[in-house]
Amino acid sequence: MSSEAFDADNATLEQLRDVLINKNGDAKLSNRYRALFNLKSIGTEDQDRERAHVAIKYIAECFKDDSELLKHEVAYVLGQTHDLYAAPFLREVLESKDQQVMVRHEAAEALGALGDKESLPLLTEYLENDPSIEIRQTCELAIDRIHWENSDKAKTEVLEKNIFSSVDPAPPLATNTSTDKVEKLQVILNDQEAPLFERYRAMFRLRDLGTDEACLALASGFDDPSALFKHEIAYVFGQLSNPVTVPSLIRMLKDETQAGMVRHEAAEALGSIATEEVLAVLQEVSKDKEPVVRESAIVALDMYEYENSNEFEYATVV
Ligand SMILES: [Fe+2]
Ligand SMILES: [Fe+2]
């Protein structure tokens, strides 16, 4: 199969895997992403769970790759499958010293998203002992999320329906509390003394409110010292795709003192907003010396080009 034109929608499971793991060595990163998204929808939605498990197993084969960017996406995708079959692959990644921090972070988060109670001892171990603050904070969130999911609160709280259908690192704050105002949520969001889980809950409540005012409140979180916290705000901005967030995202992306995970997520969010101004900035960072930033920009630009080209013609080049 040519690396240039890849018709992911009509490929077999094995063809998708081969492009994902770049078996032939000539697959474009954007095509590898496309293969991953198709495997994800089979692994997530397929009524045929046996076929879904094959898709999950194929997705996990990609952990042998070098691309930190692609592997972190793979971990994220496995966390969205609602299937504990994915958990052992993710535990192995969290425990691996050879995997980059961003990949291990996403694996720990994914275990939280799966609500995997069996992973609690492992997550506690890394919360207490991992040298990376991003990993420790992720484990803290994942543990709190698993406890929350199994608590009475989860059954009684009234939550806004998540229109993005993502499983998030924390649920939004309940809609029936007295805190349901942008100003109050912003205070919780930026309270560095509050538990991270609570601050994330405020973050996702602000996302669900989704107004310009809520977006600007979220942008105030970019002054936080935690890379993890800032990358999550950028992720949420990608979901919202509200142009009001563009100046703050460009500030994060261009600031080379920010962690790779923050700049990567800012690039990806800008890719989904894709105004003319944004495309020029992505062109600029597509030569960045930080691989996750550079690759994020390249994939975003490729995806943009693909979506704006004549898809029919594109698909028939195969
Ligand atoms: Fe992440
Ligand atoms: Fe990411």
TrEMBL record:
Question: At which residues are the HEAT repeats?
Answer: 245-284
Q: Which InterPro entries match?
A: ARM-like (IPR011989), ARM-type_fold (IPR016024), Deoxyhypusine_hydroxylase (IPR027517), HEAT_type_2 (IPR021133), PBS_lyase_HEAT (IPR004155)
Q: Which cofactor does it need?
A: Fe(2+)
Q: Which Enzyme Commission number(s) are on file for it?
A: 1.14.99.29
The residues the record assigns to binding Fe cation 2 are: H231, E232, H264, E265
Pfam families on file: HEAT_2
Reactions that this protein is recorded to catalyse: [eIF5A protein]-deoxyhypusine + AH2 + O2 = [eIF5A protein]-hypusine + A + H2O
Q: Where the protein is mainly located, per its record?
A: cytoplasm
Give a Gene Ontology cellular component term annotated to this protein.
Answer: cytoplasm
Q: Is the tRNA-binding keyword given for this protein? A: no
Q: How is the cofactor bound?
A: Binds 2 Fe(2+) ions per subunit.
Keywords, alphabetical: Cytoplasm, Hypusine biosynthesis, Iron, Metal-binding, Monooxygenase, Nucleus, Oxidoreductase, Repeat
Q: Which Gene3D superfamilies match?
A: Leucine-rich Repeat Variant
Localization, UniProt: Cytoplasm; Nucleus
- At which positions is Fe cation 1 bound? H72, E73, H105, E106
Biological or metabolic pathway of the protein: Protein modification; eIF5A hypusination
Any one GO MF term held by the record is: metal ion binding
Enzyme category, top tier:
oxidoreductase
What role is this protein assigned? Catalyzes the hydroxylation of the N(6)-(4-aminobutyl)-L-lysine intermediate produced by deoxyhypusine synthase/DHPS on a critical lysine of the eukaryotic translation initiation factor 5A/eIF-5A. This is the second step of the post-translational modification of that lysine into an unusual amino acid residue named hypusine. Hypusination is unique to mature eIF-5A factor and is essential for its function.
Record-stated family: Belongs to the deoxyhypusine hydroxylase family.
UniProt name for this protein? Deoxyhypusine hydroxylase
Q: Which gene encodes it?
A: LIA1
